[in-house]
Specification:
The protein is about 45% helix and about 15% strand. By secondary structure, it is of the alpha/beta class. It folds into 2 domains: about 80 residues, no CATH class; about 200 residues, Rossmann fold (3-Layer(aba) Sandwich). It starts with a helix and ends with a helix.
């Protein structure tokens, strides 16, 4: 496929008004387009909860929990009553009920789950967030509701859990599904889909590094993988159009005690409901 055709395909879900705004701002000022793009990068989409997640939503005990380190509140879901608890972490633009199939399977094996709507996601307030806030939330929930036996994370949730382990999260086993890897690659892909000049990508990274006084690439998943001793199952689909399978392969390469599972034809989200994936993730976490 020609590069221009690939761009058009990737941009189908991006409102034309945003693409036009990007082109105008790029012409006027690199500073303006960087600020605009940085705001977009921090703004998830909120989706209506699908029918398949309604039962978990209705049966969960829900509460608002304040995360002191980021001065934000998140909605937490307590699903099941077992003292053996598994932490579930959704991805970008996801919800605390998104891993419902895995949650149900865990309940059947005698576990309960804790999950949450990350800042600016689901029922939690706010309009913007970053992975740093996912990580802060994970560490705070461990303090309030842990210890957790294990954890399962999808997409950005997987990256966040890998980083949380690096920062002191204590669990026995981890499953990542469709996890992203190198932060600069994520920003590059974001700017590419918005048809921005490549140099804007570096400007966005520098904007965040100056704002938060930290290296963004230090949050790359493979760097955390190097320091993790516990067993980790990395699941990734070969046909994931949002997060390339090379990410899962690269993360697995750096794990000391890792296992890799590559699926086919499931993409980035359908994978969460696949029977074999659910069974493999549940067995790995509970055995």
């Amino acid at each position: 496929m020609a590069k221009n055709s690939k761009i058009r395909k990737q941009s189908l879900n991006i409102p034309k008004s945003i693409l036009v705004t990007v082109q105008i701002l790029q012409f006027i000022s690199l500073k303006l387009v960087t600020l605009f793009a940085s705001r977009l990068f921090m703004t998830p989409l909120k989706h209506k909860i699908p029918k398949r997640e309604l039962e978990m939503d209705q049966k969960s005990r829900q509460e608002k929990v304040r995360i002191p380190t980021i001065s934000k509140e998140v909605v937490v879901y307590h699903y099941g009553t077992s003292k053996k608890k598994i932490l579930l972490v959704h991805g970008w633009s996801g919800r605390g009920t998104q891993l419902v199939k895995i949650a149900d399977a865990l309940l059947e094996t005698g576990y309960s789950t804790i999950s949450f709507d990350a800042p600016a996601h689901g029922k939690s307030g706010g309009k913007t967030t970053l992975m740093l806030e996912f990580i802060a939330t994970i560490l705070e929930l461990e303090k309030q509701f842990g210890p957790f036996e294990g954890a399962v994370g999808h997409s950005l949730g997987g990256m966040s859990l890998l980083n949380a382990l690096k920062q002191g999260l204590k669990i026995n086993r981890l499953v990542t599904i469709g996890s992203g890897d190198i932060v600069q690659d994520i920003i590059d892909d974001f700017t590419y889909k918005l048809r921005m000049k490549h140099k804007v990508s570096n400007r966005i990274r520098l904007y965040f590094e100056n704002r938060f006084d930290t290296s963004m690439d230090s949050f790359s998943a493979y760097l955390s993988a190097k320091e993790i001793e516990i067993p980790v199952l990395v699941i990734h689909d070969n046909d994931d159009d949002e997060v390339p399978v090379k990410c899962g392969i690269h993360i697995h390469k750096y794990l000391k005690n890792g296992k890799l599972m590559i699926t086919k034809d499931l993409g980035h989200r359908k994978i969460l409901g696949d029977e074999q994936v659910v069974e493999s993730a549940t067995n790995f976490i509970t055995n």
